[in-house]
Design brief:
With 232 residues, the protein is mainly beta. It folds into three domains: 95 residues, no CATH class; 65 residues, no CATH class; 68 residues, no CATH class. The protein is built from no helices and 26 strands. The chain starts with 12 loop residues before the first strand and ends with a strand. Pfam families: DKNYY. This is DKNYY domain-containing protein.
């Protein structure tokens, strides 16, 4: 919901960042694209930011483009992506989450898993989606966007076929058991028993891997373009 452009700036009471209390409401003032946005049912006394999302005593919220909005970014004359001043934003309620028990499982720069009294949620596409098969009592964050509970190992919202009772996770994000190896969401088809990382640098690829069959060059930026080639 967008407020009138002629709101009285003298009545603004800052909460944090660009959020304010205004006549009992919580509003966001986006000077970059000249928008003033009301937080639906927002409570000024309890409204706060929590690692990429917002919450108060009533709801958990996310920041998103409206359905009729132009793209969030555009290209400048140099070909670089910049924020689009024509983009239209809103603060939306994420339905079905209990704000009184909502919290992140572990706060990190890559915080991805959250919980409330009803279940586990994963941060995906700017919102939170329930991890349907996750066990609330045993779930924990492993790092590198992996999670686990007593039954499964997860990468974001996907179950990956790694033995939850007999696995290892190294300092580069390779997770394996006695049968399979994964690097994030990509399966590494090498021998787990003799697998080793010889050289690792995500910026200056390839990553060099080795097992009993030889040496391999591994490259990836996303799962779709990941690949492994045996080196002569």
């Amino acid at each position: 919901m967008e407020l009138l452009k002629d709101y009285n700036k003298d009545k603004l009471e800052k909460l944090f960042d660009n959020f304010y209390q205004y006549e009992g409401k919580v509003i966001q003032v986006r000077n970059y694209n000249n928008q003033v946005i009301e937080v639906p049912d927002g409570d000024p006394d309890t409204f706060k930011k929590v690692s990429g999302f917002f919450m108060d005593k009533n709801h958990v919220y996310r920041e998103n483009l409206t359905k009729d909005s132009p793209s969030r970014t555009i290209k400048n004359k140099y070909g670089n992506s910049i924020n689009n001043p024509e983009a239209k934003w809103e603060i939306s309620i994420i339905e079905g989450i209990d704000p009184n028990s909502f919290k992140y499982i572990k706060e990190k720069y890559d915080t991805v898993y959250w919980l409330d009294k009803n279940g586990i949620y994963v941060k995906k596409d700017g919102t939170l989606k329930k991890l349907e098969h996750a066990d609330l009592d045993s779930f924990e964050y492993l790092g590198f966007l992996y999670g686990k509970d007593k039954n499964h190992i997860y990468y974001e919202n996907e179950i990956i076929p790694i033995d939850v009772h007999n696995y290892s996770l190294d300092t580069w994000g390779f997770i394996k058991d006695h049968q399979r190896i994964f690097h994030y969401d990509f399966e590494i088809g090498l021998d787990p028993e003799t697998f080793e990382v010889e050289h690792y640098n995500l910026i200056k690829q390839p990553i060099i891997l080795r097992d009993r069959t030889g040496k391999y060059a591994y490259t990836r930026s996303t799962q779709s373009d990941a690949g492994i080639v045996k080196m002569e």
